[in-house]
Design brief:
By secondary structure, the chain is an alpha/beta fold. The protein is built from 6 helices and 5 strands; from the N terminus they run E-H-E-H-E-H-E-H-E-H-H. The protein binds D-ribose.
Length: 147
């Protein structure tokens, strides 16, 4: 898969680990920054990754900040994005099966590197279940269009 990844300074170290992991898994990764632990504003990198995924240029995105909260707020403002904040394995799996999540958000200050790796592995390998969940996602898109 083509995957866009980004972080702010609070998520930089976990972003670096995650980028290497995702590349090792055989995916093609675009790193939208940031590129050091110097302070930046998370809406910049969050918006870049959200737009890359919404445009169809990248199939999925991964966004990491200190808590994952800011990144999920930013990403979900982009039509077509279903960003989910996942810090454990069950949520990571369900976010794919039921919600067809296309951006995974995590907080480096919340989750350890071992659980983060498992979250990423599960999130990347779990398929959308479709069926009644497709109908609910269609309803979600209608809400976005009417606001
Ligand atoms: C940066 O200090 C921190 O606010 C940011 O990484 C993130 O946690 C925001 O939601």
């Amino acid at each position: 898969m083509k995957i866009a990844i980004g972080s702010d300074h609070g998520g930089f170290l976990l972003k670096e680990r995650t980028r290497k992991l995702v590349e090792q898994m055989g995916h093609q990764v675009h790193d939208a920054g940031c590129y050091s632990t110097d302070s930046v504003d998370y809406p910049v990198q969050g918006r870049k990754v959200a737009e890359l995924v919404a445009s169809g240029a990248y199939e999925r995105g991964i966004l990491i900040c200190g808590t994952g909260i800011g990144m999920s707020m930013v990403a979900n403002r982009t039509p077509g994005i279903r960003a989910t904040l996942c810090h454990e394995l069950f949520t990571a799996r369900m976010s794919r099966e039921h919600n067809d999540s296309n951006i995974l958000c995590m907080g480096e200050r919340v989750i350890g590197p071992g659980i983060a790796e498992e979250v990423v592995r599960i999130w990347l390998s779990t398929s959308f279940a479709g069926g009644r969940h497709r109908r609910r996602l269609d309803m979600l898109e209608e809400i976005k269009c009417s606001t």
